[in-house]
# Entry
Amino acid sequence: MVDAIYIHIPFCIRKCGYCDFLSFQSNEIEREKYINKLINEIKLYPKIKYDTIYFGGGTPSILKIEEIEKILKELSFDENSEITLEVNPKTVDKEKLKGLKKIGINRLSIGIQTFNQEFLKKLGRIHNIDDGINTYKMAREVGFKNISLDLMFSLPGQNIDDVEKDLDKLFLLNPEHFSIYSLIWEEGTLFYEKLLKGEYKETDNSLEADMYQMIIEKSKEQGYIHYEISNFCKEGKEAKHNTKYWKNQEYIGVGLGASGYYQNIRYKNFSNFEDYYDRIEKGLLPREDIEKVSEDEKEEYRHLVGLRLLKEGILESSDKKFYKIYNKLLKDGYLKKIESNGEIRYILTEKGLFLANEVFEEFV
Ligand SMILES: C[S@@+](CC[C@H](N)C(=O)[O-])C[C@H]1O[C@@H](n2cnc3c(N)ncnc32)[C@H](O)[C@@H]1O
Ligand code: SF4
# Structure
């Protein structure tokens, strides 16, 4: 039974130079229209009691409290549900954070990216170092007890010291959870253009591996559990919602361009407002792509996402075709076999973790 929903808010104040997430600049009227259509889309789904609700973007924190509240009113949940909202510093003040808490948001994911002013500028972020830190502190002051911070590394011109300093600043704040992503050079972004022109250079692989190794070691020293390739948390503070993706559980996705996995179907909504609105006005689900998931595909996908969970990994498949792959990866030292409670599971070894993409390729 599905119990998770992802809600896409495709608006940002300004596009960051590296980002290809689906988001646009907008005015209040456009946002209001969007919220109304989004609510109509939610109404097309059965009333479900949600264990996790995730507002992602874009920048969901750009919305007014009343708009977020209006969406939440359409959803059923209780005080144990995890309700996350992505926050971009500079789009919230203390009053707004108070409001978010009041309407039921109980987990924030704050896009810090770096605590270095030079890199913040390079990334094209709208916030400065103090904005990031103050947003976090204000969130604590108004009572948020579950906060995640997003960092990025392997930025053009960044050295291992820079990353270490970012981590030190993050540890001083002591969030329950953080994600740290190595920069992906996405086609069509300003960064990609600069890469092609030779203005920016990719970090070489061995330096990126050293950065990642340092991140893993330092985080462990600070008492963080490295539970997913790019995610770290204090004991019991794993992201409940995202963990469902990694466990290949179904979830509903609503909003422009949102993906979902529901009733054995993987789908993606229209990414342009015109078609998205048009389908909803006709009372139809605004889906552009629909793919029925076969048992084989489900098993493949379960391996691909499940191995990202570093402690749990994946349960051994009953489908014999996977045994050859397991054996090869075991022999090459990429996987480790663990047995507990009569179950056989596979997890990535350290070697497998550093070459995770190569491991995943074996399963497709
Ligand atoms: C939707 S954004 C988070 C919320 C908000 N829009 C913000 O940026 O503060 C999700 C996260 O993806 C990461 N991200 C975006 N583009 C990326 C890229 N090209 N490479 C690596 N990480 C990226 C950033 O860390 C970002 O915080
Ligand atoms: S990183 Fe966040 S704030 Fe920047 S453009 Fe992407 S979604 Fe918007």
